[in-house]
Amino acid sequence: MKKILLCIFFLCPALAVLACPVCEKQQPEILRGITHGAGPGSNWDYVIVWSAVVIVVVTLFFSVKWLIRPGERSQTHIKRFILDIE
Fold first, then answer.
1. Over the Cα atoms of the chain, what is R_g?
2. What value, to the nearest 5°, has the Cα angle with vertex 33 and ends 47 and 23?
3. Does residue 32 contact residue 20 with C-beta atoms inside 8 Å?
4. How far apart are CA 71 and CA 13, in angstroms?
5. What count of other Cβ atoms lies within 10 Å of the Cβ of residue 61?
6. Is residue 23 within 8 Å of 37, Cβ to Cβ?
7. Spatial CA neighbour of 37 closest among 49, 24, 48, 54
8. How far is C-alpha 64 from the chain's CA centre?
9. Is the dihedral of CA 68, 72, 75, 79 positive or negative?
């Protein structure tokens, strides 16, 4: 846990140096100093990005959950064919 917090602590300040001064003026206040290029074209861009973020977070959650505890208990499950080879 300490390693994760240290990584976040040291990587977050690095985000502030990613955008150049010209790009900062074109960005909305919430994205200023983070990204290059023109800002979002409309509010739909925010909806699309946040929808993608939600999908990625949910997918990551279930991937880790099912990797740690798959939940198949049946003796006829396909994994038993591989695990029970003797």
1. 22
2. 90
3. no
4. 40
5. 10
6. yes
7. 24
8. 13
9. negative
Interval 16-36: pLDDT, tens: 556 677 777 777 777 776 777
Q: What is the 3-state secondary structure (H, E, C) of 13-81?
A: HHHCCCCCHHHHHHCCHHHCCCCCCCCCCCHHHHHHHHHHHHHHHHHHHHHHHHHHCCCCCCCCCHHHH
pLDDT, one tens digit per residue, over 4-19 is 777 677 666 655 556 6
Q: How confident is the model at residue 59 (pLDDT cuts 50, 70, 90)?
A: very high
Residue type, 44: W
Q: For the whole prediction, is pTM greater than 0.85?
A: no
Whether residue 67 has pLDDT greater than 70: yes
Q: What is the pLDDT of residue 31?
A: 72
